[in-house]
Design a protein that fits this description.
The chain has a 6-stranded antiparallel beta sheet. A two-stranded antiparallel sheet has the order 1-2. Strand 5 and strand 6 form a beta hairpin. It has helices at residues 10-23, 36-43, 47-59, 89-93, 112-118, 149-152, 157-160, 165-173, 191-197, 246-254, and strands at residues 63-66, 70-73, 83-84, 99-109, 125-135, 138-148, 177-188, 204-214, 219-228, 233-234. It is α+β, with helices and mostly antiparallel strands.
Length: 255
Amino acid sequence: MKLLRGAIPLYYQIAQILRSQIRSQEYKPKDLLPTEEEMIRTFGVSRTTVRQALQMLLADGLITRIPGKGTFVNPEAHAQHPDWSIQSIEGLIDAGVTKRKFLGAKTLRAGEGLAKIFQIPPGSKVTQFRKVELVDDEPFFHATLYVPFDLAAKIPLERVKKEPVFTLLEEYCRLRIQEAHQWTTASLATSEIARHLKVKPGDPVLLEERHFVDATGRVVEIATDHYRTDQMRQYLRLTRTDPPGAARASRALLD
C-alpha cells in the first residue's frame, strides 16, 4: 500500500488507514490485526514506524495487544459513549460515530460569508458535501461540509461517502490539519434537518460550526453540524488555578 512521502508522518498515515478499517468494520471487534512484519511489508516502512502507528491506536482504545498472541481490535471500539470529550484533531475521528449516510455533493458559488472565511473572491467555486452520521442506526447529527473546489476536486467521492473529509484532505492534498476552531450554539431544526434527524421542524438542535485550518493558516474545510439534543451531551471538566480568595482580592484591588 503506497503512502505519501512528505509533510504527513508515515506512522500517522498508517494509523489513519487502520482507524478507517476498524471504523468501517473491515476489522471487526476481537479480530486479529496483521503482524508487525506483515505491516512492514505492506506499507514499506520500518518496525519503529509501525509501532508508532499502533501506539496511537492503543492510546485511543481501538486495539489491545496480548503478548505472544498479537494485536486485536478492542471489543469496545465501536461502542457509543454518551459523554465524550475531544482534546485533539485525531479525537474527532473517534467520537463514537459508527455509520455514515451520504446525502450528496454539489458545486456552489461562494457567497460573501464563505468567501470571507476561505479568503477567496465571492463567486469562487466551493464543493458542498452532506451526510447524516448514525449511532446504532439512529441519526446522531446532520453534517453540511464546505471545501474549496481546488481541494475537493482531488478527493475521490467514493472515499468521501465513507470517511471524514478532513482526513482525506490530508491524504490527497498533501496538507496537515493543524487546528480546528469550533463554535457551539442552540438552534432550531429546519424541515430538511428535521427529516434526516427524525425530529419535528422547529425542534431544538445543537449547532456546531467547525473550521479546519492547515499548517499554513488556510481554512480548508467548514463543517456545520446539527445534533439531536436527545443524543448529544458534551462533558467539560473545569479547574481553578488561583488559590481560595484570589478572586475576592482581585475585585478589592479594582474597587
